[in-house]
Amino acid sequence: MERKKIIYKILVGLLVVLFGFGGISNLLLLPDMVASLNTLGYPEYFGRILGLAQVLGIMVLVAPVSSRLKEWAFAGFYINLISAIASHLIVEGLVPAVGIILVALVILTTAFVNFMQLKTTPNQ
After folding, report:
1. Which domain holds residue 62?
2. What is the dihedral of CA 110, 112, 117, 120, to 10 degrees?
3. Is 124 within a domain?
4. What is the average pLDDT score of the chain?
5. pLDDT tens digits for 36-71?
6. Number of structural domains, the chain?
7. Distance between alpha carbon 69 and the CA centroid of its chain, in Å?
8. If you ran DSSP here, which 8-state letter would residue 2 be given?
9. Mean pLDDT (whole number) for 18-47
10. CB 116, CB 71: distance < 8 Å
11. pTM value?
């Protein structure tokens, strides 16, 4: 049981780094993020909306809030990553960014599976 908690916390830490960096970059409209948004056909203001959602999502994952709210944060991250993959594939084809997003999707899925296992395991 304790091992699963440690694995979950490490995975959430990785998600905090991934989505924290992306979220802050989007909120601040850093040049690389703006260029990526423009390449994909999104307006700049979309970066701020996406960045705010990412930062709020990571805050929910680390805060002592209800399991239901954490599930919604995971769902939001899934929508974010799947939409990012679709956008890149449609506009640019198979580019290295898709591989990076797939790695983030694997981390997210592994964290979610651990979260659900911890949620359903009785306290010992």
Report:
1. 2-119
2. 180
3. no
4. 93
5. 999 999 999 999 999 999 999 999 999 999 999 999
6. 1
7. 15
8. H
9. 94
10. no
11. 0.90
